[in-house]
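Need residues for this backbone.
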């Protein structure tokens, strides 16, 4: 079913060219939306599985147990802290061997570290990973922050991104449409000239993530809201009603890769190189022009001109969308739910067995399975309890097999969860087991680190375009002291800077194993630098100790220089006797007076 947007206010009169542009962009959006319908259905199912809705649509009698073993949610919640256990190490490198550029790269490293803390990226990455694992696809939208004008990013809802159907990645996408439900007051603030003509839309839930519905009859009292036109809407709660009643509209931001191409079929089209941006809401053309980011190009080591970062969880190289993690684990988890529920049914049956009552026993309304219950009969018939058969062993064997298969497919096992293994008796074995058992998680980490490397490259490129705006960043001096530097982006504009991420820097490391190796190398005499040893040890007040060691090292160097200067001052001047032994002997033989001078200087040195 095609999406129908609201009509603008009657006083909005677009030109024929604008009408044609509106129709074309909406047709592109509808084409991309329809090509995405199948993957959206998979996403909705993946959302339900992650939130523990495993029994929806299953025809199970009410008296049967419906237990949910939420292994899917547990596996995803286990992978997120592993993939985001440490801040990634993004190294800023200057292209070339110019010492000035190398010094500037150190300053830009401090700028990158400051941006990371300013935007609270550790929390942002956790939210990004949740989308990445649930939907198999995650996006970040890059922009300048509206309050401080510094580079920023937001986790984009995967339901809001649309690309041309033939695209398999952003590098070969011709156009990208970002369709986000936006409050009307935001539209009027961002586009004061034409935003006043936009009217609100309804039914925007299909463009929002995690729209988990609650079925009727679950105990919640539905809320009925009537709008001024007389139409009635049914909501599951007051919160949902208030959220949906906020006046919003679907804002389309269409980014076209090359403005020189005629996507519109316009005979009067004029060549416009660079990324073209078109903003539409409620059949109102809000903006049509060049994007703010014309510097997103190969010259700045950026592979595509779009202000988005795309992450795909496995999936095919011939498809833009990745594989949702819950989908591949669905049938295993549901099978375990059914087995567990059947075992619970059997336990209930053992505690509340069936009764066989002869019709002639004359027992009426007395059997309630109450502990210690006394049943009185007046007839000659028999009243007997029938114990159900126990669960066969193959049921438990099957459950264990399914659990092992779940761990194999998900990549989350005892080792990644930190559970003890009786066969592991040393730190080396534990480290090797940890690495071997997390191969799938390590592969996901490579994808995430590549995305963060792209983010760093985009941010630094945006920072270089800030002009004369000055920011203060903390900088760690080589002496170990922290200082603040005032930085202006414009001075780096012509510098060729690259960002590279250290592989595996986001994953947890076996600190105890690494510390033991460093101590062993120190005992063997291979590592002799005490500051290096302390830097790599996990100990309290390490920074203060390093600062004292740096001060002591500096004082020792100053003392050594002072002693060297004093020794040089006390040494006799023998330059007039010659520079070599042969030259000295020759001069002493030719001039006997030099012998007395030499004896006098040696005598004076001994007295000192």
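Answer:
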């Amino acid at each position: 079913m095609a999406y129908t947007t609201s009509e603008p206010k009657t006083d909005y009169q677009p030109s024929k060219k604008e009408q044609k542009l509106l129709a074309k962009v909406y047709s592109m959006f509808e084409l991309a939306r329809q090509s995405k319908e199948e993957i959206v259905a998979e996403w909705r199912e993946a959302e339900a599985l992650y939130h523990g809705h495993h029994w929806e649509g299953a025809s199970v009698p009410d008296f049967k147990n419906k237990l949910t073993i939420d292994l899917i949610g547990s596996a995803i919640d286990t992978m997120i802290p592993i993939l985001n256990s440490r801040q990634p190490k993004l190294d800023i490198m200057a292209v070339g061997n110019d010492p000035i550029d190398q010094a500037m790269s150190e300053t830009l490293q401090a700028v990158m570290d400051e941006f990371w803390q300013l935007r609270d990226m550790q929390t942002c990455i956790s939210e990004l990973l949740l989308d990445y694992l649930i939907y198999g696809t995650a996006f970040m939208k890059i922009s300048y922050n509206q309050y401080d004008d510094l580079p920023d990013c937001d986790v984009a809802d995967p339901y809001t991104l649309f690309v041309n159907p033939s695209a398999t990645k952003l590098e070969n996408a011709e156009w990208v449409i970002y369709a986000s439900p936006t409050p009307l007051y935001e539209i009027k603030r961002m586009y004061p000239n034409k935003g006043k003509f936009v009217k609100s839309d309804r039914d925007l839930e299909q463009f929002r993530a995690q729209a988990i519905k609650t079925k009727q009859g679950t105990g919640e009292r539905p809320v009925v809201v009537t709008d001024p036109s007389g139409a009635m809407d049914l909501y599951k709660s007051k919160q949902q009603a208030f959220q949906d009643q906020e006046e919003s509209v679907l804002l389309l931001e269409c980014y076209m890769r090359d403005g020189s191409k005629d996507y519109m079929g316009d005979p009067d089209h004029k060549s416009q190189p660079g990324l073209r941006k078109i903003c539409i809401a409620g059949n109102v053309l809000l903006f049509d022009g060049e994007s703010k980011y014309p510097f997103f190009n190969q010259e700045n080591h950026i592979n595509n001109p779009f202000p988005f970062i795309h992450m795909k969880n496995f999936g095919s190289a011939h498809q833009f969308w990745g594989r949702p993690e819950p989908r591949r684990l669905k049938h295993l988890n549901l099978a375990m739910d059914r087995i567990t529920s059947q075992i619970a049914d059997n336990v209930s049956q053992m505690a509340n067995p069936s009764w066989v009552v002869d019709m002639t026993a004359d027992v009426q309304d007395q059997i309630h399975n109450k502990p210690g219950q006394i049943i009185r009969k007046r007839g000659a018939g028999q009243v007997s309890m029938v114990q159900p058969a126990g669960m066969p062993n193959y049921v438990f064997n099957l459950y264990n097999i399914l659990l092992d298969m779940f761990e194999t497919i998900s990549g989350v096992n005892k080792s990644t969860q930190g559970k003890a293994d009786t066969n592991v008796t040393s730190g080396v074995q534990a480290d090797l087991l940890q690495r071997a058992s997390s191969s799938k998680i390590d592969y996901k980490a490579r994808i995430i680190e590549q995305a963060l490397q792209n983010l760093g490259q985009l941010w630094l490129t945006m920072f270089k375009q800030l002009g004369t705006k000055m920011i203060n960043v903390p900088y760690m001096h080589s002496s170990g002291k922290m200082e603040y530097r005032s930085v202006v982006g414009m001075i780096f504009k012509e510098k060729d800077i690259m960002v590279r991420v250290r592989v595996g820097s986001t994953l947890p490391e076996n600190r105890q194993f690494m510390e033991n190796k460093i101590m062993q190398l120190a005992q063997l005499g291979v590592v002799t630098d005490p500051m290096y040893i302390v830097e790599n040890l996990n100990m309290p007040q390490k920074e203060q100790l390093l600062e004292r060691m740096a001060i002591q090292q500096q004082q020792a160097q100053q003392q050594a220089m002072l002693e060297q200067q004093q020794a040089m001052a006390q040494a006799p001047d023998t330059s007039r006797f010659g520079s070599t032994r042969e030259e000295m002997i020759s001069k002493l033989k030719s001039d006997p007076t030099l012998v007395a001078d030499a004896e006098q200087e040696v005598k004076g040195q001994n007295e000192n």
